[in-house]
Amino acid sequence: SELRVRLQVTLRLRETDINEKPFEEVSATENISKSAFFCGCTALLKKDSTIEVYLVSGGTKFIGKALVVRSEGCDTPYPRYAFRFVHKEGDWILQ
Residues near 48 by Cβ (< 8 Å), separated by ≥ 6? Predict the structure, then answer.
């Protein structure tokens, strides 16, 4: 329902995967909106799980927590996920 912008933003994603194993990964978004983003992540994530999101630009800055709302290609080496922020701190790319 929000306008999406095709923009690559480098993020660090951190939390636990589907097997409760901690992961930390740097990924670039494919598109973003005011409260969401879409990107690849090699970790397998459950729908409705929450991850920590950090903006990687001039240092690493905590942006907030995001919920996995959709997944694509989970049977491939590089699944892609749609995330929606549930908590934001600081400035996100689109305000």
Answer: 67, 68, 69
* Bridge partners, residue 13, by sequence: 25, 53
Residues in the chain, pLDDT under 70: 1
Distance (Å) of CA 46 to CA 6, 31, 53, 65: 25, 21, 16, 15
The model's pLDDT over 76-90, given as tens digits with 9 standing for 90+, comes to 888 999 999 999 997
What contacts 68, CB < 8 A, 6 or more positions away? 45, 46, 47, 48, 49, 50, 51, 81, 82, 83
